[in-house]
């Protein structure tokens, strides 16, 4: 369906059909589509000027977005921010900064990780199809180690971290590692929440070995998981954090925020780009951030979790097709499996996920799939969605799961 209007958790198509939006354009329009503060600020900015290039003739809104990022991201150390256009570009820049600061080259990433579609970020991304196949060769000095995936590996956070750290020590050598890049909740990989303790153990390994710890919060950031940033759930303070998606209510904007000494280690003129921190995107970000603060959207995300999780768990208890219910805040998922297999974990069932997504679409609910095995159904409603629509969507999802048999 092609869309002509959207807002309040509803997408309207060219034929006048209304669809409930449980995807937010992949976790982007967290403040709602065409959110009033975003529209007002963008409209005003477009009428004033559309572009100057911040590197040529700067403007205040760029600085204001950076100040908001420095204030809202975890940690009360001195910070700097730099703005870019897309998530992949932010991750690329985080790697550039970490390499410049450490004078090391190796980058450690994780199984099930997703970081983008540019050459370097394809190398950082775990899954071959559809992201990497036939697009190599990929950037060198990227090392992938196991993630904590509680449903499938049954390990504690401490055990999983020990395994990952051993791999780093034995196969790369801690002293060669510039950065550990990790999503605090793996997004495209299947909304995998690492077991408690996994992230803190890696973060402290990084800090005791002079490694820059980079949290990729492009999907998890900006109120989505019930905190401003998902690192907060585990009490970790990353050295660098990448953000995009939810930051600007649908306009293309991304950022790297981090410790001042790390960010300042790059030579003058080393980072940039024609459009990075475009004034219209900055205006949108200021509108989106104002909305999140005024409406306390982190707490709205927690409310959404408290409405959805019990319902999803109920579905799981009456259907052996749902192997796991997981996520945080308004970043929730169910993992579909082949029933009747003995032993845990059950075989992934990507066909079931595709069938449920298709049935939901037919009933007017937009849901997305995800996961290394393609068997995860993920829910990312706009945080502005009313409870009644969530309820309606859950009824449709339940019916679709039930028809799997
Ligand atoms: N890091 C954690 O989730 C984008 C990808 C959609 P860009 N995720 C959606 C697709 O199939 O292309 C993402 C992410 C994390 C980086 C990115 C990349 O962000 O803005 O798409 O470049």
Please sum up the structure shown.
The chain has 405 residues and is an alpha/beta fold. The chain is built from 13 helices and 15 strands.
**Low-pLDDT segments:** none
Query: How many beta-strand elements?
Result: 15
Structural class: alpha/beta
The biggest beta sheet reads: 7 strands, mixed
Distance between the termini: 28 Å
User: Which percent range fits the helix content?
Assistant: 25-40%
What gyration radius follows from the Cα positions, in whole Å?
Answer: 21 Å
Overall mean confidence score, pLDDT: 97
Based on CA inertia axes, which overall geometry fits? globular
Key features of this structure:
405 residues; alpha/beta; 4-stranded mixed beta sheet; 15 strands; binds ligand PLZ
Structure characterization notes:
By secondary structure, the protein is of the alpha/beta class. The mean pLDDT is 97. It has helices at residues 24-27, 36-48, 60-72, 87-102, 119-124, 150-153, 157-171, 198-208, 260-263, 279-294, 297-318, 350-362, 387-402, and strands spanning 3-7, 10-13, 18-21, 79-84, 106-110, 142-145, 177-182, 212-216, 240-243, 254-259, 322-328, 331-336, 365-366, 368-370, 376-379. The protein has a 7-stranded mixed β-sheet, with helices on both faces. The chain has a 4-stranded mixed β-sheet with strand order 1-2-3-13. Helix 12 crosses helix 13 (387-402). Bound molecules: ligand PLZ. Ligand PLZ binds next to helix 4. The site of ligand PLZ has 16 residues, from helix 4.
């Amino acid at each position: 369906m092609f869309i002509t209007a959207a807002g309040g958790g509803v997408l309207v198509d060219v034929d006048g059909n209304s669809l409930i939006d449980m995807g937010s354009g992949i976790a982007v329009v967290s403040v709602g589509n065409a959110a009033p503060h975003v529209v007002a600020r963008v409209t005003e900015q477009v009428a004033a000027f559309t572009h100057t290039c911040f590197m040529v003739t700067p403007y205040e809104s760029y600085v204001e977005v950076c100040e908001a990022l420095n204030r809202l991201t975890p940690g009360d150390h001195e910070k700097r921010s730099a703005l870019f256009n897309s998530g992949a570009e932010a991750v690329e820049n985080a790697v550039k900064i970490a390499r410049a600061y450490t004078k090391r080259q190796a980058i450690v990433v994780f199984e099930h990780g997703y970081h983008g579609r540019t050459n370097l970020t394809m190398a950082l991304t775990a899954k071959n199809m559809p992201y990497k196949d036939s697009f190599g060769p990929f950037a060198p000095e990227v090392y992938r180690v196991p993630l904590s995936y509680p449903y499938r590996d049954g390990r504690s956070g401490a055990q999983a971290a020990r395994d990952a750290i051993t791999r780093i020590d034995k196969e790369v050598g801690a002293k060669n590692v510039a950065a550990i890049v990790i999503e605090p909740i793996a997004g495209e990989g299947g909304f995998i929440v690492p077991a408690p303790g996994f992230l803190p153990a890696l973060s402290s390994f990084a800090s005791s070995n002079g490694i820059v710890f980079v949290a990729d919060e492009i999907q998890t950031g900006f109120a989505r998981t019930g905190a401003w940033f998902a690192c907060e759930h585990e009490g970790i303070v990353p050295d660098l954090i990448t953000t995009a998606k939810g930051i600007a209510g649908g306009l293309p904007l991304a950022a790297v925020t981090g410790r001042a000494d790390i960010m300042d280690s790059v030579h003058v003129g080393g980072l940039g780009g024609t459009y990075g921190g475009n004034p219209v995107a900055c205006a949108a970000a200021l509108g989106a951030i104002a909305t999140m603060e005024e409406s306390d959207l982190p707490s709205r995300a927690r409310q959404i979790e408290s409405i959805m999780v019990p319902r999803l768990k109920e579905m799981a208890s009456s259907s052996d097709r749902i192997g796991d219910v997981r996520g945080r805040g308004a970043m929730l998922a169910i993992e579909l499996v082949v029933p009747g297999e003995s032993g845990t974990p059950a075989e992934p069932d990507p066909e079931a996920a595709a069938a449920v997504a298709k049935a939901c679409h037919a009933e007017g609910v937009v849901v997305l799939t995800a996961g290394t095995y393609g068997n995860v159904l993920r829910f990312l409603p706009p945080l502005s969605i009313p409870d009644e629509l969530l309820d309606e969507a859950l009824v449709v999802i339940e019916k679709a799961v039930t028809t799997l048999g």
